């Protein structure tokens, strides 16, 4: 009996390696003539730390106190003060592409996530079908095969809509991508009190508490159970709250902490944050603040009721962000209480893109009275509705999102915002790296260029885990990211990630050695809300998009367009972008207004044709 039990155990623990290792025992005619053999159980290198990746949602570069903002984030402050701040780190400019690139270490079009995995915003082409191939294994799959336990909580955002029922299939759920446990939601956004909640492979009912509290409870419980069962075994936790994506919902005990603090408005906010960033060394001492976006009114020109309304939107957002920081502190404090914090490598990416422009000029209290959702609603009507229902902002009854003026303020010191892949305001997000046991520098700033694909190779190099040629017998595509480990000990080391494309919904850019060329596809305000606001206008001609050129080494926040001065450099970069477009599946260029409209028409036809 003992022999049979042991055999079953070794079959389970050694399964991943059994398929890759030839049998090393001897099979004779009888047991006496045979020699037993099992593959060794998978173990990570001795002394391997736990790993946590924290990815926030829709946070601007200048929002947190950690990077010069005026919104209190003491947990992130502490991690950064005892670790490293990266100020030249980048994302893909919108959620699903960023998350796909993060998880796989490959560019988002190369892993089929040029847009989303949703029916209304995916397309049947290799770069856009929303289905990450098995040849692009995730960080969770790699660490799991190297002896780590793997957990994920919060926003996943990479599962095709048609696969999200309890019938699956589950190969594109977190459980199919290397996570042993998952608690959160599969889509791109959800209500904080009524989330579309999933646990492992089952859709479940929410319990009415704030989602951030629930995912934090679950993260702590995963760690507690794992450490009780195997104290020396490391874990990987992917902690990705819905915060601070809309709807901005948080208890008044958090939002009321900021009462009156934004009454001087978004112009004063930008100036204050800009000064803080210079003082902290986050930005160059000779930097200049870009002009206010022409679509945004000067704060001192607003009416008193408008100021009161807009200030309340920001109070709620600030409370939401501080509350998120508090929930992260619960995980940090739990690790400290079990003597695991010093043995945990933590990466914090503060936002999967720039601050969101999706709140329109007026802000949103409820979607039914949003110009974004209701095209027939005049701006004045939306504003008056918001003023009359100001008390709802942030409550479970609201779908709150702040107005555009606050998005630009939260993105200080940059121009533009989420979805603008052509702009640093859409793509530059702060990164914190914390592991005092192995990174001796504390509170230092790193300016090396980094991109979201870099976290996977950084983690593997630091853990001394080789990148696998195969995962579960499937040959793996090469990585596109570059490890940042070289910069941990050398603030002056030259950047090793020297070239990167960006492309979201037609807006596009190419970066190489400090130079950047970019073109906005929908640059006007009427297009600011992206493809989901598809109207009746024809698709915009990509060939008429205007390219700009910037030297980020001298002009990090893109104030001086050099396209006319250096046409040869612009042409060189545009050629490089075209090469990447072919290499990484960016083609075909798609105007997402047309895709959304086609899906909407098709859905209506299906509803009409459905049997009554």
From TrEMBL:
<dbReference type="InterPro" id="IPR050738">
    <property type="entry name" value="Sulfatase"/>
</dbReference>
<keyword id="KW-0479">Metal-binding</keyword>
<dbReference type="GO" id="GO:0016787">
    <property type="term" value="F:hydrolase activity"/>
</dbReference>
<comment type="similarity">
    <text>Belongs to the sulfatase family.</text>
</comment>
<keyword id="KW-0378">Hydrolase</keyword>
<dbReference type="GO" id="GO:0046872">
    <property type="term" value="F:metal ion binding"/>
</dbReference>
<feature type="signal peptide">
    <location>
        <begin position="1"/>
        <end position="18"/>
    </location>
</feature>
<feature type="domain" description="Sulfatase N-terminal">
    <location>
        <begin position="49"/>
        <end position="464"/>
    </location>
</feature>
<dbReference type="Pfam" id="PF00884">
    <property type="entry name" value="Sulfatase"/>
</dbReference>
<dbReference type="InterPro" id="IPR017850">
    <property type="entry name" value="Alkaline_phosphatase_core_sf"/>
</dbReference>
<dbReference type="InterPro" id="IPR024607">
    <property type="entry name" value="Sulfatase_CS"/>
</dbReference>
<keyword id="KW-0732">Signal</keyword>
<protein>
    <submittedName>
        <fullName>Arylsulfatase</fullName>
    </submittedName>
</protein>
<keyword id="KW-0106">Calcium</keyword>
<dbReference type="InterPro" id="IPR000917">
    <property type="entry name" value="Sulfatase_N"/>
</dbReference>
